[in-house]
Amino acid sequence: MASDFPPSSIRPVLKEVTQLLSSRSETISIAETAAGGIISASLLSVPGASKYYKGGLTLYTLESRVQFAGWTEDSMKNYKGPNKDVVSGLAENVRERLRSTYCLCESGTAGPGASGASRERTPDFVALAVASEEGLVTEEHTTGMDGDREKNMVEFARLGLELLKNAILQSSKGPAEGKM
To answer: What is the distance, to the nearest Å, from the Cα of residue 124 to the centroid of all Cα atoms in its chain?
Structure first.
């Protein structure tokens, strides 16, 4: 019987990402919110993950972002919902703390209901960022899955892994380039 994990929609990009990281001797850290750990768990489900996985944080609450990701009380007061600025800051902070080649950050609104009136607070919205020494790559998406929480969580993870894959492929460093 085939395993139900990682979700089937994630498996193709997961395979590509883990092969790229391994072949290039590069590392990844994860900061995720609405995906709830699916990205980290998927990466860790692949044998050999200890070669590329530096660690991950599930920063679901604003308080956890203060404790573990460099947020301040002002960050919490000014928070309006997930966006490119939020994920960029989290990705840069976690990458620096865990000293990884890349950090993928995801923050979205999975549903079932809206958590505010803005676009960023509607179910199916996600903001993504990948931080590396070369800079940041960001994207925002709507999944079209409305308030289906589980489907949104999986799709947020898949979209994040796709962004990570593209960031790795666009990196100026080739396989094991600059490695001793």
So the answer is: 15
